[in-house]
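Hmm, how's this folded?
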Amino acid sequence: MINYYQTEFQKQNVLVLPYELFQRDKMVFFDKLSQFLNIEIKIDPEKFRKQYNLKSNHYINYHFRFLNNYINSSSSLNGANGLRFHKSKKFSKKLKRFLSYFGSDMKDKAIQAKLMKVVQEWSKEKFIESNKISSELIGEDLTNYGYE
């Protein structure tokens, strides 16, 4: 994909930055972006310090994902009675919050570990060659960001 864009738009017109760089050092990420675009990008580092979903319980989210049909709006629910939908949404949110309160951290960590293991097994050695090619194309050693 990188090669296609570099061929289509010329290499000097394509910038690829690893997401892990953004996670690791947002200021360096935006400095590189700023240099590439040849514009000044003003960033308030304080805005990046805020963390979201700190209390999210992955165990509850995984096992009760069917509640998403009631919590999130969907075009398939357009014909639903507004009052019934509102009550369902409110009830589903309260139920998830209640279950999260009683959901143990041990189960939460176990489900995170299980999901991580599945992802790691699936991707094991799958992208080694393409990561090497990507590193060469973008001029950045992706092993510095945890890629093999």
